[in-house]
Amino acid sequence: MKDRSALRLATLQEALASGGTLHLRDAAELCGVSEMTIRRDVNAYPQVISLLGGRLVMAHTPGVTPVYDLTEQQASHYQAKNRLCQRAQGFIEDGDTLFVDCGSTLMPLMNQLSGYQDLTVITYALNIANAVAPLPNVRLVLLGGLFYPASQSFASDTMAESIERLGINKAFISAAGVDVQRGVSCFHFHEVLPKQAAMAAAMQRLLVVDASKFGVVRPAYFASVNEFDVIVTDEEGAPTLLRDAHSASPTITAP
Q1: What is the dihedral of CA 235, 237, 243, 249, to 10 degrees?
Q2: Please, which contacts does 133-137 make with residues 24 or more away whose CB atoms are closer than 8 Å?
Q3: In this predicted model, what pLDDT tens digit does every residue of 210-246 receive, in sequence order?
Q4: Selection from 112, 80, 106, 128 nearest residue 186 by Cα
Q5: What is the pLDDT of residue 142?
Q6: Cα 51 to chain center, whole Å?
Q7: CA 194 to CA 154: how far, in whole Å?
Q8: What is the rounded distance in angstroms from the CA atom of residue 94 to the CA atom of residue 98?
Q9: Residue 117: how many CB atoms within 10 A of its CB?
Q10: Cα distance between residue 11 and residue 31, in whole Å
Q11: pLDDT digits (tens, 9 = 90+) for 174-205
């Protein structure tokens, strides 16, 4: 997906997040492009946004939750996320520069960073930044841009370039869906660029995901399973993923 198309889809997702509709003309004006461009974007991803009678609406695909709410996600599978982050911490060393993805999965990891003497955390997520900002041993790099309240994260068309200029030792990536055949995905298109840029820049790529995400496909694809060096997951779903990804490259760490 081209960078600008991804940002346009992210803007439209945010505008439609409350469940309303958006006239095609208004959508084009919002994104600063022609109506034909919006039509092409929407036609490329009909599972995300539909055009009905000249108005854009969120598509409702069976088995897919179209709206992401960070507050709800923080309470979902919290114990599993906490265990995963305890395991993920084992990959962190003093002096590391870490890219930390947005969402709720990696929040418990931020509570485990106070014991290190020197770390740098790069993120585009406000909740992650707020968690590490008080830590005197952590140098925080917050990537800015347009703020998306649903995921408490930022996006800009220059964010990927900013990430490429940074030296990242480890990229901790979260996901809303993991499927061996259809790849790793998330809810929001504006997250695709920073995730992919961080994975390209990092020396080590770690996917931290609980088993509830296995076999799930979300609208915004950003990587294949074998693009990760390590998958940190929990025991319940690890055997299936191990079997299906046997010929792929990631190391899967589970209890």
Answers
A1: -80
A2: 137/113
A3: 888 888 888 889 999 999 999 998 866 555 665 555 5
A4: 106
A5: 97
A6: 26
A7: 10
A8: 11
A9: 7
A10: 7
A11: 999 998 888 999 988 899 999 999 999 999 99
